[in-house]
Design goal:
Layout lengths: L3 E3 L6 E7 L7 E11 L2 E10 L8 E11 L16 E8 L4 E7 L1 E2 L4 E7 L4 E10 L5 E10 L6 H27 L4 H29 L11 H5 L27 H6 L25
Parallel strand pairs: 1-11
Antiparallel strand pairs: 2-3, 3-4, 4-5, 5-9, 6-7, 6-10, 8-9, 10-11
Helix pairs in contact: 1-2
Length: about 290
């Protein structure tokens, strides 16, 4: 059985950017896909941080998979796809594979995340290859645009100044010996210890510049796992069968296939007027 895929050009997708209040200068991009295969209907919500990824910067992706079950107990919210085997691929917009079978990590119930650092700017796709716990294949891709990281001119100006100072020190020291009549190999031998010290100074200075003023502008991004974490209020019930609320504490799990066989359907509870009547046949006598 070949995997079913959902692609960007179809009408069953939507994309938006969600602001995260925990970090006012950061945001998370979200995109959705509805994927229909011969074995089920799935909904995929992909989250990405940052929204405008740069070359050389790690990008976080997290995909939430859920399955729509006709007549299931889940009501309006489809149940998450748990226990699936999920890997990721990075391809170009034309479909050329750049990275294959990237391992994913759990980021919640039915959520699978992957981190990747793009080397160059361009248009790419992140593809999630899924095999559910019962062996059904599924593939879904999302487009990603990578931009070039802004150049940190302070680093390059500092490096240029460091180069001029280092080179000028070596040349000046050699010239001082040459003015005293020490030239050729003799001048080079006397200049060599100073040159070695200047090279060490240059290397240490370059490392310090790269640490405090990186060549490419770096920024802090939103941690998807932390952003999606929810805190439950103290005392809130965590189970519909909580004995403290009068329940028995027992749980009954019915498989999706059994739900369909039982013809079990759900409907939101609404308040409405009930009318009824009774129709019978008979004869009326005076």
């Amino acid at each position: 059985m070949s995997p079913a895929s959902a692609h960007d050009g179809e009408d069953h997708s939507k994309e938006q950017t969600t602001q995260v209040t925990a970090k006012p200068n950061s945001s998370i991009r979200t995109a959705e896909r509805n994927v229909q295969t011969a074995t089920g209907q799935f909904h995929v919500l992909m989250r990405q941080s940052p929204t405008d990824p740069r070359a050389g910067e790690e990008v976080q992706f997290a995909a939430n998979f859920s399955e729509r079950v006709e007549g299931g107990f889940s009501g309006s919210e489809p149940p998450p796809v748990t226990g699936a085997n999920v890997s990721a691929r990075i391809t170009t917009a034309a479909g050329q594979v750049i990275a294959d079978k990237l391992p994913t990590h759990p980021e919640g119930e039915g959520a699978y995340g992957v981190h990747y650092k793009f080397r160059s700017a361009g248009d790419y796709k992140v593809v999630f290859d899924v095999r559910t716990s019962d062996g059904r294949p599924l593939a879904v891709d999302f487009p990603v645009t990578i931009v070039g990281a802004p150049v940190n001119w302070a680093f390059w100006l500092g490096l240029a100044a460091l180069t001029l100072v280092s080179a000028g020190t070596i040349v000046g020291y050699y010239s001082s010996w040459a003015s005293d009549g020490v030239r050729g190999r003799a001048g080079l031998r006397k200049t060599l210890p100073i040159a070695a010290g200047v090279v060490v100074f240059f290397l240490v200075g370059t490392v310090a510049l790269a640490y405090f003023l990186p060549p490419r502008d770096k920024r802090k991004t939103v941690d998807l796992q932390a952003a999606s974490a929810t805190v439950q209020a103290p005392g809130a019930a965590t189970s519909a069968g909580d004995p403290s609320l009068g329940g028995s504490g027992a749980h009954i799990n019915i498989s999706k296939e059994s739900q369909l066989l039982f013809n079990i359907r759900t409907e939101p509870v609404t308040e409405r007027q009930i009318t009824s009547g009774l129709k019978v046949t008979g004869a009326v006598r005076a």
